C-alpha cells in the first residue's frame, strides 16, 4: 500500500514505486492540459507526432539530427579538455586569475562575440563549434573551480603523510578525487550545447542541422513542426544526460555510496 500523504509532506522520502506513480500522474495531467489548452493556435499532440513523422521521412530530420549531435559531441570534447585543464591548473597560483576571468565570461552575450570568433576561427563549422565551446566552458569552469576549491585541506595533508610529491597529491586528490564531480559538472553543462544549438546553426546554415531546420519552420510559423523538432531535441538531450550519468556510475560507483551515507 502506498501512503499518498507522504509525497506531500516535507523532508520525507518516497519509494521508487510511489515516485513512478507520481511521475505517471503528472505526465497524464500535462498531456490532458495540452489537449484542453485554450490557445487554439497551439498544435495538439496528434498534430505534433504527425509533423514529426513527416519531418523524419520527407525532410531528413534524422540526418540533420546526426549532424547536430556530432557537432555537439565535438564541442563537448573540446570543452572538457579546456575546462578541466584550466581548472586543474588552478593548483598553481599563476592560473587562478585566468580561470576566474574565464568564469566571468558567462555574463557575455555570444551575439556580440560572433565577429571576433569569426576572425579567429573562420566561419562555418569552426565558428559554430567555437561558440558552443565558449558557451559551455565559462559555466563548466565556474562549477568545477568551485569543486576544486572546496576540497578539504585535510585530504591534501593526508596525501602528504603518505610521502607523495606535490604533483602526486594533485593527481590523487584533485584529479582522481574529484572525478565523480567532474562528470556531474559535465552532465549539468552538456545541456547548454543543445540550448545554444538553434543560435549557432542559425549563424551558419551551410551544414544544416536541427537548429537550422527549427529556425526555418519557425519562420513560416509551422508550429506543429516546431514542437516536433523541440520534442526530438528533448528526447536526445535526455538520452545524452542518461548516458553521462551511466558513465559516472560505471567509473565512479563510490559516488552513489557516498550519497546513500548522506
Plain-language structure description:
This protein is mostly helical. It folds into 2 domains: 1-36, no CATH class; 40-261, MetI-like fold, CATH 1.10.3720. The protein is 76% helix and 0% strand. The chain has helices at residues 16-35, 45-58, 61-88, 96-104, 114-121, 124-149, 153-161, 166-176, 179-203, 210-219, 223-251, 253-261. Helix 3 packs across helix 9 (179-203), helix 5 (114-121) packs across helix 6 and helix 7 crosses helix 8 (166-176). The longest helix is centred in the C-terminal third of the chain and has 29 residues, at 223-251. The protein is flat and about 70 Å long.
What key attributes describe this structure?
MetI-like fold; 262 residues; 2 domains; single chain; 12 helices
Give me the Rg, rounded.
23 Å
Quantity of strands, as a count: 0
Percent helix, as a range, is: over 70%
Unreliable spans are: none
The CATH topology of the largest domain is what? MetI-like fold
What do the pLDDT scores average to? 86
CATH architecture of the largest domain: Orthogonal Bundle
Amino acid at each position: 500500500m502506498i501512503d499518498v500523504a507522504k509525497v506531500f509532506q516535507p523532508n520525507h522520502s518516497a519509494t521508487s514505486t510511489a515516485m513512478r506513480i507520481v511521475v505517471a500522474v503528472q505526465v497524464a495531467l500535462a498531456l490532458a492540459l495540452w489537449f484542453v489548452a485554450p490557445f487554439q493556435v497551439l498544435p495538439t499532440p496528434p498534430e505534433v507526432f504527425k509533423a514529426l513523422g513527416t519531418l523524419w521521412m520527407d525532410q531528413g530530420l534524422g540526418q540533420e539530427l546526426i549532424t547536430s549531435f556530432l557537432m555537439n559531441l565535438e564541442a563537448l570534447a573540446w570543452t572538457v579538455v579546456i575546462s578541466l585543464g584550466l581548472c586543474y591548473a588552478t593548483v598553481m597560483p599563476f592560473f587562478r586569475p585566468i580561470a576566474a576571468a574565464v568564469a566571468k565570461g558567462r555574463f557575455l552575450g555570444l551575439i556580440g562575440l560572433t565577429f571576433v570568433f569569426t576572425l579567429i576561427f573562420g566561419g562555418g563549422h569552426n565558428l559554430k563549434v567555437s561558440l558552443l565551446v565558449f558557451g559551455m566552458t565559462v559555466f563548466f569552469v565556474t562549477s568545477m573551480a568551485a569543486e576544486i576549491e572546496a576540497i578539504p585541506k585535510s585530504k591534501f595533508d593526508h596525501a602528504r603523510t603518505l610521502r607523495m610529491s606535490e604533483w602526486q597529491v594533485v593527481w590523487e586528490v584533485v584529479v582522481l578525487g574529484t572525478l565523480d564531480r567532474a562528470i556531474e559538472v559535465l552532465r549539468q553543462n552538456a545541456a547548454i550545447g543543445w540550448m545554444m544549438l538553434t543560435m549557432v546553426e542559425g549563424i551558419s546554415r551551410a551544414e544544416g542541422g536541427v537548429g537550422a531546420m527549427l529556425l526555418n519552420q519557425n519562420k513560416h510559423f509551422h508550429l506543429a513542426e516546431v514542437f516536433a523538432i523541440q520534442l526530438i531535441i528533448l528526447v536526445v538531450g535526455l538520452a545524452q544526460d542518461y548516458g553521462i550519468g551511466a558513465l559516472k556510475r560505471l567509473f565512479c560507483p563510490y559516488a552513489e555510496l557516498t550519497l546513500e551515507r548522506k
